[in-house]
Structure formats: C-alpha cells, structure tokens
Amino acid sequence: MQRTTVIRGGIVLDQRGRRRSELRLADGHIVEVSESIDPGVNDDVVDARGCIIVPGLVDLQAHLREPGHGHIDSIETGTAAAAQGGITALVSMPNTSPCIDEPDLVRFVNERANALGRCDVMSSAAMSVGRCGDRPSDIEALYAAGARLFTDDGTAVMDAAVVRSVMERVATLPGAYVGQHAEDEALIADGHINEGLISERLGIRGRPALAEAPVGARDLLLAELTGARYHVLHASCATTLELVAWSRARGVDVTVEVTPQHLSYTEEALSDGDALFKMNPPLRTAADQAALRCALADGAIDAIATDHAPHSDERKELPLDQAAPGMTGLETSLAAALTDVVEPGFASFETIIAAMTGQPARIAGLDQWGHGGPLKPGAPANLAIVDAGEVWTVDPAGLASRSSNNPYRGRQLRGRVVHTFLRGSQTWSTRERLEPARS
After folding, report:
1. Model confidence over 135-173: pLDDT tens digits?
2. Given a cut of 90, is residue 292 above it in pLDDT?
C-alpha cells in the first residue's frame, strides 16, 4: 500500500484565506484537503496542532556565494538555511566570482541547487558583462538557460544606454524582468552607513537616501519607454516608495521588495559602530522605516526578500568603514517579520504570508514551478508549518548558514518554522521525525 503523509490539526493560511484543514501528501503533491483526515496504518503523521500551515516561502533575493566563495557559504548550506526558514524556492544573485554572466553558470547554480533537493533555485543573471556596467550581457542566451531576473545587484548600472538596451530585450521575453540596486555611484562614493545623525556622530562618510532617487527615477522612466517589467530591489526609504507610486500611476509594470532588516532596524542600530548592522542600501531613519511598514501593510510593497548576504567573521569584525556590508537571514526572515511587524500591529499575519509566498512567486515566475500556493488538491506539496507562538533565541551555531552575521543573533523571536516540505519531502524539522499512525 502506498505510504502517504497526513498533516493533522493545523490551520491552513493561503490565498484562499484561513481555515481549519488537514492535508494528505503523496507522490510530491497534496492529494486531499479536508477538515478531518483519518491516517492509515502505513501513513506518516505530522502533528500540526497549534500551528499555521502556509505555502512554502519564496525569497526573491539571496546570495549563495557560489561559484567562487563556497568557504563563506555555499549552495548546499544556503539551500539548507532556506529550508530551515520555511523557504521552498528562491532567486539567487549573480555577484559571485566569476559573476553569473554566462549561460553555463546559470545552469550550474540551478542544477547544483536542485540536485540537493532542499530548495528550488532560479539563478538571476548579470545585466552587464562582468558586472562592469558598460556592455549588455547576452540576455537571450541567459534567458534560455533559465534566468528571469537580470541585475548587477550590488552595484547599479549607471550607463542609461546599457539599461535601455537590456530593458528593450527583456520586454520581448515572457516572464523576464530587470532589477537594480538603485544607489547612484557618485553620491554614495566611499559611504558606509546612512548619511545622517549617526554617520556624523561616528565621523564616517554616509550614503544618502536621496542616492536612490536618480537611479530609480531613470529606470522607471526607461521601463515605461520600453515596456519592460521592473523590480525594485531592497527598497530602503520613503522617496523610493513615492517614485514607485508615481510610476504605477503612469502604468509602469513595477514591483518592489523590502528586507526584514529594514523593517526591524534603523540607523540607530549602528550607533556604537557595530558592523553586524552594516548593509547596502543602509538601514535608514525611523521615518523611512515607518514608511516601509505602512507601504507593506497597504499593499504598496509586494514582497519581503531576505537579501541573505553571508560574510566571514573576519570581514564583519573590521572597523565599520572597512567591514563588508550584508546580513544573513534565510533562517530568520519569517520570525523577524512576525516579531517586529505583526506582533507590534504594523501589519497582519496574512499580509506577511502573502508577501513571502504567492506574491513573490508570481513576480519571479516561481508559481509556474508550483510555489506560493494555494494549498489545494493536485498542487505540489511545497509548504511550511509555523508555530506562531513559539519563542526562540537566535544562535548562529544552530543555523545552517556557514556565516554568523545574522542581525537577530542573541535576540528572542516569536514564531518558528517547525516543518518544511518540498514536493512532499521533509527538508526541515525542529521536532521528532514523522511517526507511523497507530491502528
């Protein structure tokens, strides 16, 4: 008799709302959804009492560090970290060494990740050759290899003619889109944290929030001109949100993401010079954070993306003006959002789940791979089970990433992923292994 998995006693939350349901999984799919399912004697049973069952999370921006820097983090450890955080699919960034500007490298990342079976990965590709910003990559060949997002993430392409050329080609490719790290290179030169009171107090050159405006406005106008789909990576300030609203009113196809860390922290986290909180774009003011939280709550922000950026302890322990920018977050993204956004009442649990499942899946086209829900019979069994009430302390030693630069380390967070399933296979659990039902 076929062995199936029955998930009992939970509350399902997806695009169709919140409801008490039990699920049966078989052959990689959800085969039954009902208020009550009786397991057979050969079935495995997951006790989801007190938990929320959600579609597997989808992350639009993660740095897996391969090829080139697998000693810092790797496709293997990065996808394990994703599973620990309830993530079943992610978009990986191209600023590796060498950068992802050749079709074979796109295929390498995707095939390596997918062979591991912990998390589906869709590699993005560089907009420009070598991420040098002066010559477009072979967009069509990279698309054929599996890339859908084209970005030089980490640096903005400042040559408008290159951006226009990329957008004109992307506009002809179904599902393709362009994203930018929108900070003007001249305005942020030698800057390290947000330009403001903290940078002045520390005597460190800052990166002004207004640096996002010139690149963002130009790109949104080019997207309008070319008809390309545009995605704003890690929005950090109110001005960026105003530009997005303006462009949407003009009919531009634009989506926007925010990171958990920009929702959790402000520039004040850097007041003692701790480079753990250094990232690009930097943590901004309390007013910018409030604008981000409001935009998420009212639907103006489409997705929460981790911008998972592992670094060695040596690089993060340097003085603030020398330390590497970036934070890890695959394992903690949902818990951070629940703790710092839902619990204080800035947005609902439903809003957070939508911004971490169905909405990012549609942006990246990962819904066509069966990610993002809804959880219904016939759908691939990509899901996470969340104990929204569990309080736990973030200890890097217990996280899958090789790097410890997680901004929540040492903090108590509320809400934890206790099981993750990718196509019906359990990829993460904090609890006992599945047990056979008793007759």
Report:
1. 999 999 999 999 999 999 999 999 999 999 999 999 999
2. yes
Residues 6 or more apart from 129 whose CB is under 8 A from it? 101, 135, 136, 137
CB 60 within 8 A of CB 357: no
- Under 8 Å between Cβ of 142 and 129: no
Q: How far apart are CA 257 and CA 342, in angstroms?
A: 17
> Per-residue pLDDT for 260 more than 90?
yes
Q: Show the tokens assigned to 161.
A: 């003619």
Can you tell me which residue has the tokens 């080139």?
68
The β-bridge relationship of strands 230-232 and 177-180 is parallel
Domains of the chain, start order: 55-369 (3.20.20.140)
Mean pLDDT rounded to a whole number for the chain:
96
Per-residue confidence (pLDDT) for residue 2, from 0 to 100: 65
pTM recorded for the entire structure:
0.97
Angle between helix 286-297 and 238-249 (nearest 10)? 40
Phi, psi of 165 (to 5 degrees): -60, -45
Based on the residue annotation, tell me whether 307 is a catalytic residue of this protein.
yes
Given 152, 307, 367, 387, the catalytic residue: 307
Burial readout 161-200 (b: 16 or more C-beta within 10 A, e: otherwise): ebbbbbbbbbbebeebbbbbbbbbeebbeebbbbbbebbe
